[in-house]
């Protein structure tokens, strides 16, 4: 049983993500739109949540959760019909919006990174690609359901190309460690791109090829069609923005590049 950050309090791969992002954004004409808006937001919006006072109240849900862990596995075995969880994500994004979905380790930090991207209108954390219907966090952390912790992104393709999202995905994590990100070990921490359209699939495969050229280690990221998305429990949503474990809120302002403390 492993929960986010159980083995370490450090974050993985938090340095210069936005810088990596900017330089890769310059490489194609479709992406140049992104740069001005990012700079604009960086200048105007300081990361205003970083200095706010700790809000102790936010400790409670996670402490309750941690004390309940260990009693979670039973439900998962009851429901083994995998036709629903293995079916497609048939939710519909708002008009003008598209979905994208990524698994890159503990979903808290990954979500905050995507929240900060101009053109991303909404993010949700959840579970997908597993074998049971309606899993809980405890089920997923038990390691028996094969779900991946993912972030589902709602974005406006006119304001933010899918390639920009892919760039951030690669910059945010180590795609060469199988079922593992830093101290977080388990199949729920696997690296994955879950696509909604043939165009997304093509872009994902091409970007993986590009990334592979830049490292000697084998990239183990899975690229699969998006399956049913189970929204995680409410307290996991925008967890770090709301204060994480210790009540220190982290800014989700567009363009903010404060280092992300992945576990709060
Ligand atoms: C877990 O799901 C992945 C797809 O995300 C699949 O490739 C793998 O075979 C599954 N593992 C098990 C044990 O079912």
UniProtKB/TrEMBL annotation:
EC assignment: 1.8.4.11
Coiled-coil region list: none
Gene3D superfamilies (UniProt xref): Peptide methionine sulphoxide reductase MsrA
SUPFAM superfamilies from the UniProt entry: Peptide methionine sulfoxide reductase
UniProt keyword annotation of Oxidoreductase present: yes
Chain positions covered by the region annotation Disordered: 76-95
One annotated Gene Ontology cellular component of this protein: cytoplasm
Reactions performed catalytically: L-methionyl-[protein] + [thioredoxin]-disulfide + H2O = L-methionyl-(S)-S-oxide-[protein] + [thioredoxin]-dithiol; [thioredoxin]-disulfide + L-methionine + H2O = L-methionine (S)-S-oxide + [thioredoxin]-dithiol
Any one GO MF annotation of this record: peptide-methionine (S)-S-oxide reductase activity
Biological processes, Gene Ontology terms: cellular response to oxidative stress
Peptide methionine sulphoxide reductase MsrA domain: residues covered: 100-242
Keywords from the named record: Oxidoreductase
A Pfam family matched in the record: PMSR
Keyword Chaperone on entry: no
Domain of life: Eukaryota
Protein family: Belongs to the MsrA Met sulfoxide reductase family.
NCBIfam families: msrA (TIGR00401)
Annotated protein name in UniProt: peptide-methionine (S)-S-oxide reductase
